[in-house]
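Blinded run. Sample ID left blank on purpose so nobody reads anything into the name before looking at the predicted structure. Input follows.
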Amino acid sequence: MGGGSSHDIQGGVLETDDPWFLQKFHVLNAKGAAFRINHQSWWKEELPSKEEYLEARRNLGEAGWKVDYIITHCAPTSIQNELLREMPKPDELTDFQEEVLQRCRFQYHFFGHYHGDGIIQKQFVLLYDRFCD
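Blinded prediction complete.
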């Protein structure tokens, strides 16, 4: 399951049709602020829809909540908290991944949202640099 909240948008989301776009862009860039640009580096649909959560639960139910591998963009809330020390905040998707962690039997869960590599709690594998090279 893809998707993940953008945690690096403290400077906001800029709109390209804003008459002050270039000025805002240069100011934020000069400050080293974390920001995104709508429809270029950020989309409001960054998290799954309710229908996608239902489909995921239905598919896992059909598999008896037992799979070999889980491949997602972000991790369950508890794993995210371990990696980032409770920052950023949990959201609907990390909480859904937590539900999957509690209900599903699996060998490995692969994810990469946190831009690193490592094995967390034996069956959780953070793959970013090695996967993206």
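Unblinding after everyone has recorded impressions. The chain has a mean pLDDT of 88.
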